[in-house]
Q: What sequence folds into this?
């Protein structure tokens, strides 16, 4: 979002009034982390998250969107998610949905190879700044039915 | 009647059906900018924030409209900025023409202000056709060849016009003499179908198989019904490369969804257990998610012969349009009476969906990103346009948003990563399609 997306929103603002149908939803998964590469650092390289390269400045995307004249909602609880999606889908003009998401939820591959598991374990052992959240979220995603019982 | 080279160039571009050019101005293209004022065809200039975004927009235009996308940038830094967006088009096989300015022809070679060797710069991304105009009589055939080459090879082409040449008197019709070129406009896409003897060989392989796995990609986006029909006859499962996500809706029970690191377990298992592999319009690159060599007999169909037989040693490689080829193939296929393979896959898919929903409901701080897509999925309207950027969100997008019927989808992340391009797709989808819901991440 911060590399080009915010600039792109300005272009949308410039032209959206000319569109026959100006409905458009931009969903921001706002986790303040360059998250995919962070996971690649852990799983492929066995390194902890390198905070200098991975942490992103906090930006209020909803406020930025409103400044451009769009409708926008900022969501930071799970309970708000369904209603926010309904609002976004009902909007008749560009809508920015800024959802604060957890960067520690692991993108699990369909089949975990030994190298991936070893890399991930090594990253935790080398002092990943997010280690506590990573362990909890990884376990609950690998064994979700168990997790719902013990409430990790 | 065009008075100068710039007006002539825009007029010729308009004759190729172009109504809109994405770009960013600069003094290297002021001649061209001036010509927009006089364009009798009402050529529209869409101003991006950055040339990279203009090139992404041109690529998105091509993806959503099937037309040639056109972008424009000034000499030096402006031209350099285009590259990332142009590579998106190159790697996704989209027809895009880049028109770029250059310093005055009188100064070239003089280490002049912002002088960049643009022919060399664009030689890789636009290797099918990159030329610099040095004489007004070239404009007609340079435009014609740039557009025809882009269309017929589904590639990026590039025209470079020095700023002094832009203002020279136009030569619309070169004199009929030795050393001149007399080109014309127009392109008709061909019907491409393999020979019937080759289709019979494909049918023999597919009819013999007991556990057929299909993998479909962007080449199958216009062939939804044909893909489902062939899978139904063969009792096959259908996995989807990310760029082919909209090729088959996820309400088809034996559609195993995406494949690869971002993919599903049913897709993975189908590939490890199949005895026959049918690759349809895809160059999905990750061989560790395809069958082991020798495990399966393979047939591949692709419109581009150069993309065949790269990922798995196929027994038969067919060049053809996916819809036309599958239509021709279907009558040669025998309906599998044993439906247990397909039934087993469908069962695995429903189990996988249940697991994803359970994962989406696990606790996270503050919000589980999987929950957002799990809730979004049933709300997606038919015929929506979905675009996605690259990042961890692509994982959730790939797995958790079953594609509705008739969705159109473009991903700006395919094989050349870079954030922000989804916004270009959004914008382009906005101007090229009017009556669709759009959902973008």
A:
């Amino acid at each position: 979002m911060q590399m080009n997306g915010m600039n792109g929103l300005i272009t949308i603002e410039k032209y959206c009034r000319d569109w026959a149908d100006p409905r458009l939803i931009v969903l921001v998964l706002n986790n303040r982390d360059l998250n995919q590469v962070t996971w690649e650092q852990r799983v492929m390289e066995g390194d902890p998250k390198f905070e200098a390269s991975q942490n992103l400045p906090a930006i209020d995307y909803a406020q930025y969107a409103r400044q451009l004249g769009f409708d926008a909602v900022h969501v930071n609880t799970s309970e708000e998610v369904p209603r926010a999606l309904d609002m976004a889908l009902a909007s008749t003009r560009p809508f920015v949905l800024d959802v604060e998401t957890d960067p520690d939820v692991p993108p699990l591959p369909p089949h975990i190879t030994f190298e991936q598991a070893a890399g991930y374990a090594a990253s935790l052992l080398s002092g990943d700044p997010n280690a506590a959240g990573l362990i909890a979220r990884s376990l609950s995603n690998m064994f979700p039915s168990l997790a719902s019982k013990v409430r990790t | 009647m065009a008075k100068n080279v710039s007006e002539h160039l825009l007029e010729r571009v308009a004759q190729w059906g172009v109504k809109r050019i994405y770009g960013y101005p600069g003094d290297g293209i002021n001649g061209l900018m001036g010509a927009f004022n006089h364009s009798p065809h009402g050529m529209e200039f869409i101003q991006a924030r950055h040339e990279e975004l203009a090139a992404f927009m041109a690529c998105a235009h091509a993806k959503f409209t099937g037309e040639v996308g056109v972008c424009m940038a000034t000499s030096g830094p402006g031209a350099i900025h285009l590259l990332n967006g142009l590579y998106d088009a190159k790697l996704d096989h989209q027809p895009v023409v880049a028109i770029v300015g250059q310093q005055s022809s009188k100064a070239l070679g003089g280490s002049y202000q912002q002088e960049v060797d643009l022919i060399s710069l664009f030689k890789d991304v636009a290797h099918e056709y990159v030329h610099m105009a040095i004489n007004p009589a070239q404009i007609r055939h340079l435009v014609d060849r740039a557009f025809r080459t882009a269309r017929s090879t589904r590639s990026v082409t590039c025209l470079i016009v020095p700023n002094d040449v832009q203002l020279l008197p136009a030569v619309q019709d070169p004199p009929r003499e030795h050393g001149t070129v007399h080109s014309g406009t127009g392109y008709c896409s061909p019907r491409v179908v393999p020979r019937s003897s080759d289709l019979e060989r494909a049918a023999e392989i597919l009819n013999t198989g007991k556990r057929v796995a299909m993998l479909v990609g962007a080449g199958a986006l216009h062939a939804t019904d044909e893909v489902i029909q062939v899978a139904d006859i063969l009792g096959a499962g259908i996995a989807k490369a990310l760029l082919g996500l909209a090729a088959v809706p996820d309400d088809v029970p034996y559609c195993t969804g995406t494949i690869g690191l971002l993919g599903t377990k049913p897709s993975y298992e189908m590939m490890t257990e199949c005895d026959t592999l049918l690759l349809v319009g895809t160059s999905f690159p990750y061989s560790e998610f395809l069958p082991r060599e020798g495990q399966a007999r393979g047939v591949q169909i692709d419109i581009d012969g150069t993309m065949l037989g790269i990922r798995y040693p196929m027994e038969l490689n067919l060049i053809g349009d996916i819809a036309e080829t599958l239509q021709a193939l279907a009558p040669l296929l025998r309906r599998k009476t044993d439906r247990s393979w397909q039934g087993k896959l469908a069962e695995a898919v429903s189990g996988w969906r249940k697991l994803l929903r359970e994962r989406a409901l696990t606790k996270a701080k503050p919000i589980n990103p999987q929950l957002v897509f799990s809730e979004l999925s049933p709300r997606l309207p038919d015929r929506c346009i979905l675009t996605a950027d690259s990042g961890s969100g692509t994982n959730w997008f790939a797995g958790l948003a079953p594609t509705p019927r008739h969705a159109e989808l473009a991903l700006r992340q395919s094989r050349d990563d870079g954030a922000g391009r989804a916004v270009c797709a959004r914008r382009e989808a906005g101007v090229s399609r009017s009556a669709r819901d759009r959902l973008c991440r």
Summary: The beta strands of chain A are 25-30, 71-75, 95-100. Chain A has a mean pLDDT of 90.
